[in-house]
């Protein structure tokens, strides 16, 4: 699982920051962009950037779950048009939330988590047989959603 960057942890060598001026990648330990020389964010801001990436990736994972569910239901289960549409629409909403999270991470993460958990609960109420269907993906989605919430407050 992805872990939020904590104050006590040191940066990994392969982590990179994107310069806000020239959009080139720089090593995480660099103080200035290796391309244009612009000063890169300080350590505290770097932690925030990494935490926001965790949140964004979590939303992308949940969107992926719905797109995979759409493909699975279409190819293997011959599901009804309503179920296909639900998975496709929710996947698209999660994709929009992913892009929205770049400017407003907290509302996007809360909306994505609420939508995901709400649909799980609604599905279980409407059809209790679905509770254990895809339980591994459901649990992974919940854990990743909670990690995303923790990361935006990290």
Could you explain the architecture of this structure?
The protein has 154 residues and is mainly α. It has a domain at 56-152. Helix content is 62%, strand content 4%. The chain has 4 helices and 2 strands, in the order ββαααα. The chain has helices at residues 43-77, 81-100, 105-126, 135-152; strands spanning 16-18, 25-27. It has a two-stranded antiparallel sheet with strand order 1-2. Strand 1 (16-18) and strand 2 form a beta hairpin. The longest helix is centred in the middle third of the chain and has 35 residues, at 43-77. The radius of gyration is 18 Å and the shape is elongated. It starts with 15 loop residues before the first strand and ends with a helix. The model is unreliable at 1-11 (pLDDT under 50).
Q: Could you tell me the radius of gyration in angstroms?
A: 18 Å
Give the overall pLDDT as a whole number: 82
- Separation of termini? 16 Å
Largest sheet: 2 strands, antiparallel
Query: In total, how many beta strands?
Result: 2
């Amino acid at each position: 699982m992805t872990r939020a960057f904590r104050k006590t942890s040191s940066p990994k060598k392969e982590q990179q920051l994107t310069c806000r001026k020239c959009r080139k990648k720089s090593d995480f330990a660099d103080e200035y962009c290796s391309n244009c020389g612009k000063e890169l964010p300080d350590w505290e801001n770097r932690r925030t950037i990494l935490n926001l990436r965790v949140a964004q990736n979590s939303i992308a994972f949940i969107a992926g779950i719905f797109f995979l569910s759409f493909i699975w239901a279409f190819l293997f289960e011959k599901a009804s048009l309503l179920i296909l549409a639900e998975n496709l629409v929710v996947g698209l909403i999660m994709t929009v939330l992913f892009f929205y999270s770049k400017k407003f991470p907290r509302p996007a993460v809360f909306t994505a988590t609420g939508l995901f958990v709400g649909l799980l609960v609604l599905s279980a109420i409407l059809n209790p047989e679905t509770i254990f269907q895809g339980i591994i993906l459901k649990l992974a989605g919940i854990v990743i959603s909670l990690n995303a919430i923790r990361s935006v407050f990290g």
